[in-house]
Amino acid sequence: MEPFKAKPLSANPRDAASPWEAWPLGRLIHSWGPALINMAVIFWLSSQPQLGGPHWLEELVRGWLQEGPLLERVLPVVAWVEPYTSWAGHLVAYGCLALALLWGIRRQWPARPGAWRLAWLGALLYGLTDEWHQHFVPGRHTDWRDLLTDGIGAGLALAAAYLWQRHRRT
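Structure tokens predicted for VanZ family protein (170 residues):
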């Protein structure tokens, strides 16, 4: 099977792989739209003061559920899961961002050497700007461990994509 190679963007609209690519702005949206949407979601989430600090998930669940037996059964599970939600969120969000950046790089510059490293670095740099942004959001704070988790999430996603690509070749 063919390795993961994005079709280069052609100047000729008839060579377009999708209807989006027949339009010059559509080619950019098709290439970079997934990464921009991912960045917007991360920015929005990091702008939410209620998602920072201790016991944020418990407060969120209490807001959704009325006092009663269901809430009392759910709270112990929430207390057990809550310490891992931030890590999981960072791993998934920045893993998806790295893959979306790789998609954009491969669509825009198919023969670009180091696309994998560039996608990882782009995700890590966006994580750095996100931590800086959180410094200005009330109830949120910057944490170097979040940036570390962002880099690990991006690296794991890219490593999984690379292994999947190699497996498809055989």
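The chain has a mean pLDDT of 86.
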